[in-house]
Specification:
The protein is built from ten helices and 13 strands. The chain is α/β, with parallel strands linked by helices.
Length: about 270
C-alpha cells in the first residue's frame, strides 16, 4: 500500500516568535507560535515541526513553556528541535508534549546520541535534521557538476553558521545506520527563496537511504509542493512562508495535490 504524502508547516522560533529568513539570514517576524500552531492544526496539517533555531547557537535549552502551550492547542503529531544535546533534554521535550524530537548540531558533535535516543524512545521518535549547502571547494566524497563547476553537499551546524566539512550524503547514510527514524533535509541554498525545493539535493539523499525524508527549504507555491512529490521520493513537504503569510491555505494545497494525482490525506 502506498503511503499518503504529508504536508508539514514549520515554526522556526526565535525569542518566542515565529520568524522566517532567506538562506538562514535576514529573519523577519511571522507571528505567535501558539496562534499559528492552532490554525494549522484546525486547517488540516498532517504534522507540525517546531524548531528553536537559536538554542544550539546560544547554548541554551529549548523554550519548554512555549512547546507546552503549542502542544495544548493541537491534535496532530508534533516534532520539536533546537538545543537538544543529551538524553535528558529529549525526555523533557517529549514530556512537554512533543511526539518526536529533532536533533542536528548535537548529532554531529556526538553521533552516539542518535543511537542512545533510539534505544530509549524508539526509532519512530527520532528525527535527524540536516542543514546542507553546496561547497565548491575541495573535500566531499560525492562530487556533482553543473555549468562547469564542481561541488559537493556539506553539512552545516549551529543554524547553518558553522562549516563541518562533512559530506551530507555520507552523513545521511550514517544517521540511518545509527537509528534515525526520519531525516528533515533543509537546503540552505534554497531556504526562504520561494523558488522551489532543492530537487538535486533531495534526490541525492533519497536515492541512497531507506528511511523517510522531509523536504525543506524553498517552497513558495502549491506548484513547488507538487513538483517535489513528482520529481523526488520524499515522504513529506515542509513549508513556512507559504502558510505563515497566507499565500495558500493547507486545504488549497491538499485539494491541488489531490487533483494532480498525489496521494494525500484530505
Amino acid at each position: 500500500m502506498p503511503v499518503a504524502k504529508r504536508i508539514i508547516p514549520c515554526l522556526d522560533v526565535n525569542k518566542g516568535r515565529v520568524v522566517k529568513g532567506i538562506n538562514f539570514k535576514e529573519l523577519k517576524d511571522a507571528g505567535n507560535p501558539v496562534i499559528l500552531a492552532k490554525r494549522y492544526s484546525e486547517e488540516g496539517a498532517d504534522e507540525l515541526v517546531f524548531l528553536d533555531i537559536t538554542a544550539a547557537e546560544e547554548h541554551r535549552e529549548i523554550m519548554k513553556n512555549i512547546v507546552k502551550k503549542v502542544a495544548s492547542v493541537i491534535n496532530i503529531p508534533f516534532t520539536v528541535g533546537g538545543g537538544i544535546k543529551k538524553l535528558e533534554d529529549a525526555r523533557n521535550i517529549l514530556l512537554s508534549g512533543a511526539d518526536r524530537v529533532s536533533i542536528n548540531t548535537a548529532a554531529v558533535i556526538n553521533p552516539g546520541l542518535i543511537q542512545e535516543l533510539m534505544s530509549i524512545f524508539g526509532r519512530q521518535c527520532i528525527v535527524v535534521a540536516l542543514d546542507v549547502s553546496r561547497n565548491y571547494g575541495k573535500g566531499g566524497k560525492n562530487i556533482f557538476s553543473k555549468d562547469g563547476k564542481k561541488y559537493w553537499f556539506e553539512i552545516k551546524t549551529y543554524g547553518g553558521k558553522k562549516s563541518t566539512l562533512i559530506d551530507a550524503i555520507e552523513w545521511a547514510k550514517k544517521v540511518e545506520r545509527l537509528g534515525a527514524g526520519e531525516i528533515l533535509l533543509t537546503s540552505i541554498d534554497t531556504d526562504g527563496t520561494e523558488n522551489g525545493y532543492d530537487i538535486e539535493l533531495l534526490n541525492a539523499i533519497c536515492n541512497r537511504i531507506n528511511i523517510p525524508v522531509i523536504a525543506s527549504g524553498g517552497c513558495g507555491s502549491k506548484k513547488d509542493i507538487l513538483k517535489v512529490f513528482e520529481k523526488t521520493q520524499v515522504d513529506a513537504a515542509l513549508a513556512a512562508s507559504l502558510f505563515h503569510f497566507k499565500k495558500a491555505s493547507l486545504s488549497e494545497v491538499k485539494e491541488y495535490l489531490y487533483k494532480n494525482n498525489i496521494l494525500i490525506r484530505l
